[in-house]
Amino acid sequence: VAGTIGARHHAWLIVVFLVEMGFHHLGQSSGTHRLTAEERNQAILDLKAAGWSELSERDAIYKEFSFHSFNQAFGFMSRVALQAEKMNHHPEWFNVYNKVQITLTSHDCGELTKKDVKLAKFIEKAAASV
């Protein structure tokens, strides 16, 4: 029991340290960002129409973007990164040359949320403006 209490205290100190270092999103719930069933269905329809797909292995959406060059792909990623920082909501992504693969989900609650939908809409606008 004493070891368990010590481990919990140690874990709590790590969380406090991370929060103090700026990782303020740790532990925050996406409860206020959850989608209702109706909102989710509409969002999925809209996103699928734009080329996004649902992942079968987890509650997330995915899309691959192709650009004319690496510079265009990187510029696109930079715009998305700045918006993601503002939202404190970051994509999972992979880039090779002119291709960018993006997966969106809310890790803190393990599901698609309003933040994912909002970021996906921004990503679409950013891709269209390249």
Task: Describe this entry's structure for a reader.
With 130 residues, this protein is α+β, with helices and mostly antiparallel strands. It has a single domain (31-128), classed as Gyrase A, domain 2 (2-Layer Sandwich), CATH 3.30.1360. It is 50% helix and 15% strand. The protein has helices spanning 2-20, 37-49, 70-87, 114-128; strands at 53-54, 61-66, 92-96, 99-104. It has a 4-stranded antiparallel β-sheet, covered by helices on one side. β1 (53-54) and β2 form a beta hairpin. The longest helix has 19 residues, at 2-20.
Task: Using the coordinates above, name the CATH class.
Answer: Alpha Beta
Q: What is the chains' assembly state?
A: single chain
Gap between N and C termini: 58 Å
Specify the helix fraction band: 40-55%
Strand content: 5-15%
Low-confidence stretches: 15-30
Radius of gyration: 18 Å
Number of helices: 4
| Major beta-sheet overview | 4 strands, antiparallel
Strand order of the largest sheet: 1-2-4-3
Short summary:
With 130 residues, the protein is of the alpha+beta class. 50% of the residues lie in helices and 15% in strands. It is globular.
Defining traits:
130 residues; alpha+beta; Gyrase A, domain 2; four-stranded antiparallel sheet; 50% helix; 15% strand; globular
Describe the secondary structure blueprint for this structure.
Blueprint: H1 2-20, H2 37-49, E1 53-54, E2 61-66, H3 70-87, E3 92-96, E4 99-104, H4 114-128
